[in-house]
């Protein structure tokens, strides 16, 4: 597989190990960073968000994962409040290695109410982890309550019509990646889709040694809401869509767009 969040889902980290626990949750979180270095200077998706973050006096990164975006913001001189929130302990444990940032182990729905953030982000297609209508509604309520009036929420989802999941297979050479992990282990990683139903794609990623020995199978499900559905959820939650793009080059959303990139404001 290619190693970019733009093109690929990444390891779910709470799936049960299929073999002896030689590849732990912490290893999966480290693999995430190996596959997805945060790089706003060279990656268009990271380059979209980073100026928003640097220009906002306070930022809540929802589904912050290993915290790379906020860590780089602090390293590059952001002086305001930076808070990352994520329900995945192993991911957040990695984020906690970065000092000077508040890390909260919780889901979007539990975002800090009344905190008055200027900007909330949900990068790396994290929004697609919200599977049910109730989860989307509760999460948007949480983000809304954490923003100040006029505060903005920026996030992206993959456009369902682009059917990105069709590339998530070992039959696609771009989906099979070979890396050396932080412990110096050569690894192979690829995906297979298990089901596509009702707008939700269930799939698994396999982490294997070069000889094919399976070290870990990581399962995940992602929802692919369309533009109208997203708009309805945002409006219901009290957001106004300010900007929406179908690609990182800021072209409009069409039926051929790979992404739906949304910047909404809290009313
Ligand atoms: C693909 S990772 C993206 C991490 C990071 N934002 C990035 O761009 O690298 C998706 C993240 O969403 C988190 N997540 C899943 N469900 C969530 C929820 N209900 N609320 C907030 N975050 C959630 C996962 O734990 C995971 O860390």
Automatic annotation (TrEMBL):
One of its GO terms (biological process) is methylation. Residues 59-151 form the Methyltransferase domain. InterPro entries: Methyltransf_25, SAM-dependent_MTases_sf. The keyword Repressor does not apply. The keyword Transferase applies. One of its GO terms (molecular function) is methyltransferase activity. Keywords: Methyltransferase, S-adenosyl-L-methionine, Transferase, Ubiquinone. It comes from the Bacteria. This is Ubiquinone/menaquinone biosynthesis C-methylase UbiE. It comes from Actinacidiphila guanduensis. The lineage of its organism: Bacteria, Bacillati, Actinomycetota, Actinomycetes, Kitasatosporales.
């Amino acid at each position: 597989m290619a190693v970019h969040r733009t093109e690929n889902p990444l390891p779910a980290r709470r799936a049960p190990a299929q073999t002896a626990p030689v590849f732990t949750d912490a290893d999966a979180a480290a693999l995430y960073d190996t596959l997805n270095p945060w790089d706003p200077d060279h990656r268009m998706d990271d380059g979209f968000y980073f100026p928003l973050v640097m220009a906002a006096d306070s930022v809540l990164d929802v589904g912050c994962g290993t915290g790379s975006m906020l860590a780089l913001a602090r390293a590059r001189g952001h002086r305001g409040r930076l808070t990352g929130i994520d329900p995945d302990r192993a991911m957040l444990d990695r984020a906690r290695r970065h000092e000077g940032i508040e890390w909260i182990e919780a889901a979007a729905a539990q975002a800090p109410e009344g905190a008055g953030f200027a900007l909330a982000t949900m990068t790396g297609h994290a929004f697609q982890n919200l599977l049910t209508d109730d989860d989307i509604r509760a999460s948007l309520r949480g983000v809304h309550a954490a923003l100040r009036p006029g505060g903005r929420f920026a996030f992206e989802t993959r456009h369902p019509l682009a059917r990105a999941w069709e590339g998530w297979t070992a039959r696609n050479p771009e989906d099979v990646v070979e890396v050396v992990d932080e412990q110096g282990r050569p690894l192979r990683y690829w995906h297979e889709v298990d089901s596509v139903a009702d707008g939700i794609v269930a799939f698994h990623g396999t982490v294997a040694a070069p000889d094919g020995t399976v070290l870990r199978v990581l399962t995940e499900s992602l929802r692919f809401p369309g533009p109208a559905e997203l708009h309805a959820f945002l409006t219901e939650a009290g957001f106004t869509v300010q900007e929406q793009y179908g690609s990182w080059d800021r072209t409009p959303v069409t039926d051929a767009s790979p992404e739906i990139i949304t910047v909404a404001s809290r009313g």
